[in-house]
Amino acid sequence: MPPTTTNRRPAQPPSRSNARPAHTATAPAGAVRGGAEAQPSARTVASLDERSATLEQVLRSLINEHEGLLKIAKTHRAAIAAADPRAMADCLNAQAATAARVADLERQRQAAVIALTGAAPARSRVTISQLAASLPEAARVRLLAAADGLREILNRLHGEHTAIRTAAETLSSHMEGLMRQVCRKLSHAGTYARTGNVDGHIAVTTALDVRS
Question: What is the 3-state secondary structure (H, E, C) of 109-126?
Fold first, then answer.
């Protein structure tokens, strides 16, 4: 008998729909092709400009307030030289009002620094130069100029306060000398206190013996 043959279908290649896709790495959105370093976006630069502008405005407001303190200090020194108590009291009241505004601006300055650094308040102790180093050039120049202006007015105010202290010490010495003269006139016995000055407050008891 001739050999029996069977019809066999040739093996079909696997369907592409069942094949697993090859694993490929996908670059993150916004990545720079060619290995170049990513540059800050326009939105980031604008945000830095806005926050640095806020800090700059606070610094310039501090300059204005300290210029006012400088004028008050000069008036205060003139009032001390003239021994004018009413003018001195007015100067002290004006200084207190300005100091309250300066304290509020200082809180705003700290908040602006934290906004720029993103650090916690306890770790936000950075200098203006350090902050300006991370800013665009135009913002850096403006911020450094405001910081220099504030530093200059603070130095002038420190010198004026030194002059006020000297004037106050001079007035105090003058008043002390006047009081010594008054005490000397009022002390009929001319007794001296422990300080070595004539003291009119020391009572001296005197008597006259009329029996002998």
Answer: HHHHHHHHHCCCHHHCCC
